Amino acid sequence: MDRPGRGILACIPGAARPASGGGLSEGPLSRECRLLIDGVPLCRVRVARTPWLRLRGWVGYRPDPDESLWLEPCMAVHTFGMVVPIDVAFVDGRGRVLRVVSGMRPFRLAACPGAAAAVEFPAGYASRITEGSVLEVARDDNAV
């Protein structure tokens, strides 16, 4: 199993490189990686590790209901230009949830000093995530 909070790099070789066209990585990340909460599968996960991809995030994009976005490094997020509310979990370097922000509407800011990453979810996921839980990324062996 991958290290909590850092597994995204081991999940797909080259995951830190942006997709052609500068958008979020498609394909292997969205099909082969799952986000786990305390070892239980929660949803699919994408990654944004470059400054541009972290800044852009889900701006102008409607995420699938079973999709999350891992932003690393990240201790603050914005929803400027977003079209739907989101939930955000800030995690430390080991994937432990430090703070959960529920129903963050467009044109808002949220931060968590000391966070190593932020995970964005479609609104409604916050009810499944509690402070102290551990989020980690694992390869989805059932992917096609």
CATH-defined architecture = Sandwich
What are the segments in which pLDDT stays under 50 over at least 5 consecutive residues?
1-31
Please name the fourth-level CATH homologous superfamily: Protein of unknown function DUF192
Number of domains: 1
Global Rg: 14 Å
Q: What is the rounded distance between the termini?
A: 20 Å
H/E series, N to C? HHEEHEEEEEEE
> CATH class, anyone?
Mainly Beta
Sheet with the most strands: spatial strand order? 6-5-8-3-2-1-9
Biggest sheet architecture: 7 strands, mixed
Number of strands: 9
- Work out the strand percent: 25-35%
Q: State the secondary-structure class.
A: mainly beta
Shape: globular
Count every helix, treating DSSP H or I runs of 4 or more residues as helices: 3
Q: Report the helical percentage.
A: 10-25%
Q: Indicate the mean pLDDT.
A: 79
CATH fold topology? Jelly Rolls
Highlighted features:
144 residues, mainly beta, Jelly Rolls, two-stranded antiparallel ribbon, 3 helices, 11% helix, disordered N terminus
Topology, please?
Blueprint: H1 7-11, H2 28-32, E1 33-37, E2 40-48, H3 51-56, E3 67-71, E4 76-78, E5 86-91, E6 97-104, E7 109-111, E8 117-122, E9 135-139
Parallel strand pairs: 2-3
Antiparallel strand pairs: 1-2, 1-9, 3-8, 4-7, 5-6, 5-8
Describe the 3D structure.
With 144 residues, this protein is mainly beta. It has one domain: Protein of unknown function DUF192 (Jelly Rolls, Sandwich), CATH 2.60.120. It is 11% helix and 35% strand. The strands form two sheets. The protein has a seven-stranded mixed beta sheet with strand order 6-5-8-3-2-1-9. Strands 4-7 form a two-stranded antiparallel sheet. Helix 3 links the parallel strand 2 (40-48) and strand 3 (67-71). The protein is globular. Mean pLDDT is 79; it is low at 1-31.
